[in-house]
Amino acid sequence: FPSHDIADRGIQKLKATLDDLVSYLQEKKIPLTLVIFPREEYSMKGSSETKVQKIWRDWSAKRGGDLVDLFPSFSVPDASRYYIPGDGHWDEAGHALVAEALIKNIEQNPF
Fold first, then answer.
1. How many CB atoms neighbour CB 90 within 10 A?
2. Verdict on whether the full-model pTM lies above 0.90
3. pLDDT tens for residues 24-34?
4. What is the rounded CA–CA span in Å between residue 55 and residue 51?
5. Strands (E), 2-110
6. What would the DSSP string read from start to end of 6-56?
């Protein structure tokens, strides 16, 4: 895992990039939906809110964007079943789980 300093700098760069994107989207009157999800090694850590979730929940709230938090969906026993073994990417079941969460969000928050 990256050191905290490297991770914090990466998060600051990503925030700046996303702030630029938000400005562009607002100019074009396009709504923002931010989707966050855990890396495989974080998906099995339990149900308490992580630093990553807090960072992006706060960021999204300040900018008026919609946040889809997939951490709870992946924080289940045997979450590894949603990933390609040894690869870290979602498998078919993982993609289906994400699709269900996104459909639910769209139904609850139509544009």
1. 17
2. no
3. 999 999 999 99
4. 6
5. 33-36, 66-69
6. HHHHHHHHHHHHHHHHHHHHHHTT---EEEE---GGGTTS-SSPPHHHHHH
